[in-house]
Amino acid sequence: MMGDGMMDDSAPITADEIVVAYGDACATLTPRIKETLRNVNSGGVVEVRTDDPSAREGVPAWARLTGNPLVDVVEDDDQHTRFFIRKK
Amino acid sequence: MATILVNCAHGKEDPERATLPFVVANVAASADQEAIVFLTVEGVRLATKGYADGVRKEGFQPVQEVIQSFVASGGQIWACAACTKPRGIGDDDLIEGARIVTAANLVECLASGATAINVA
């Protein structure tokens, strides 16, 4: 699935950090993403794994607000999603 | 960057209403927006050391953890001076990231374009 503001990149994406955020919802997910991005250099990629379906709305909005491009989204099933965010 | 000001008027007597404004403001701070929680009435006690310990609504993060995350993300906590004074709360009582402000500070913030919301 490609959301608003995403960049199409056919090359495989390698994550510099992985956030396993199972159980996190909107209240805690984006603060965790922001915290993890602090550990990554500009241009680095954070992979966020979530089981919260509402993250499919929330994470792209967060990416648009912060200007950190969402470079890929993989929907593994109805609930599980992996977001790949590149640090601006 | 927008400035988003969220009012919180509740403390231990209503943990959900004490928590939710910080949840919303924390998401705003995490999204690189200027985020302020404006505490009034019993909510001003949340700005004091130790008060938030143990305050938790089932299904939510403990409010103390949300406050810590909020402050770490650059969020500001403003405690209404008109509400802190009758409760005997002074600057020395405040947690990191909190300060006592007057109605004039609030009005200045809003007049400068801040968006105020009430979520609980």
CA distance, first residue to last residue of chain A: 22 Å
User: Which bin fits the share of residues in helices of chain B?
Assistant: 25-40%
H and E string of chain A:
EHEHEE
Percentage of residues in strands of chain B = 15-25%
The total strand number of chain B stands at 5
From the structure provided, what is the oligomeric state, counting identical versus distinct chains?
A: heterodimer
Number of strands of chain A: 4
Structural class category of chain B: alpha/beta
Q: Which strand order does the major sheet of chain A show?
A: 1-2-4-3
Q: Provide the residue-averaged pLDDT of chain B.
A: 95
Structural class by secondary-structure content of chain A: alpha+beta
Q: Give the neighbour order of strands across the main sheet of chain B.
A: 4-3-2-1-5
Radius of gyration of chain B: 13 Å
Distance between the termini of chain B: 24 Å
Total count of helical runs of at least 4 residues of chain B = 4
Strand content of chain A: 25-35%
**Count of helical regions of chain A:** 2
Largest sheet, strands/sense/barrel of chain A: 4 strands, mixed
The backbone outline of chain B, from C-alpha atoms, is: globular
Largest interface chains and counts = A-B, 13 and 14 residues
Low-confidence stretches of chain A: 1-5
Provide a descriptive summary of the structure in words:
With about 90 residues, chain A is α+β, with helices and mostly antiparallel strands. Chain A has helices at about 25-35, 55-65, and strands at about 15-20, 45-50, 70-75, 80-85. In chain A, strands 1-2-4-3 form a four-stranded mixed β-sheet, covered by helices on one side. The longest helix of chain A is centred in the middle third of the chain and has 12 residues, at about 25-35. The model of chain A is unreliable at about 1-5 (pLDDT under 50). With about 120 residues, chain B is α/β, with parallel strands linked by helices. Chain B contains four helices and five strands. In chain B, strands 4-3-2-1-5 form a five-stranded parallel β-sheet. In chain B, β2, α2 (about 65-70) and β3 (about 75-80) form a beta-alpha-beta unit. The longest helix of chain B has 16 residues, at about 15-30. The mean pLDDT of chain B is about 95. The interface between A and B is medium-sized, with 13 and 14 residues.
